[in-house]
Amino acid sequence: MELPEQALAGGMDAARGVVRVGDTVRRPGMRAGVKELLLHLERVGFVGAPRYLGTDEKDRHVVSWVDGDVPVPPYPEWAMTETALVSLGRLLREYHEAVASFSPVAADWSTEWADPHGGPTVCHNDLYPENVVFRDGVVVALIDFDMAGPGRPLWDLAIAASEWAPLHAPSARPAAQQGLDAVRRVGLLAAAYGLAADRAEDLLDIVLEERAHSTQNILKQAAAGDPVWVAHVNEPGFAERTAADLDWLDAQRAALQSSTGMPASGESAAEGRGRPTR
């Protein structure tokens, strides 16, 4: 009996033709580098990513379906808890440790959102809440590696901090993220990841780099006529929100740097310093 195909919504662009079939996900295209990455993660025993399973009769790439809950905007409360944030930091650390031994042959990585400086680690580069899987309120897997590419590990952590803390001016945040203590939350994320206190300033510098790169890319794609980004740029207040974010980050820099040098809630300072660093 042939299993039905279910189009995947949420963070997925429907035009990409990504569908679920039973316990698998089928993709019309996949970069050779992403295939190598998923196979490497399986070899080293990293369980927080889909498994690459080959191709099907329609020449689509097949990966395993990761069971759980995936939040989509507007993000539900269970996706924005401190427990969720800490679990993301820990899983991101585990991913970076797993990929540290990866030596890809392919070089066809996406460059759209990747670290323009490159780096030693194949980063995920798309760490929005809709690209992770939850079970019982805890992040258990990263999905959708289409934007993966070489970069500095802190590039991934900067993206995660920006979108999960979130590092946006309160006036620029969606309703679901109003009331979140972003300064405290970025500290929790950094501690869970194992960021050394003396790398706090580096992280904040890379947050600003990533924000500028992302904004430039959005404007470039909008100028090229991409309908998604044209609509985004034409939303009322786009430029004002972008400027407000930068002003807020500047005003909060000292507090953010102090926060990222502190241990996670319930952990002693000695324990925090004992974590591995990057």
UniProtKB/TrEMBL annotation:
<feature type="domain" description="Aminoglycoside phosphotransferase">
    <location>
        <begin position="113"/>
        <end position="180"/>
    </location>
</feature>
<dbReference type="InterPro" id="IPR011009">
    <property type="entry name" value="Kinase-like_dom_sf"/>
</dbReference>
<dbReference type="Pfam" id="PF01636">
    <property type="entry name" value="APH"/>
</dbReference>
<feature type="region of interest" description="Disordered">
    <location>
        <begin position="256"/>
        <end position="278"/>
    </location>
</feature>
<dbReference type="InterPro" id="IPR002575">
    <property type="entry name" value="Aminoglycoside_PTrfase"/>
</dbReference>
<protein>
    <recommendedName>
        <fullName>Aminoglycoside phosphotransferase domain-containing protein</fullName>
    </recommendedName>
</protein>
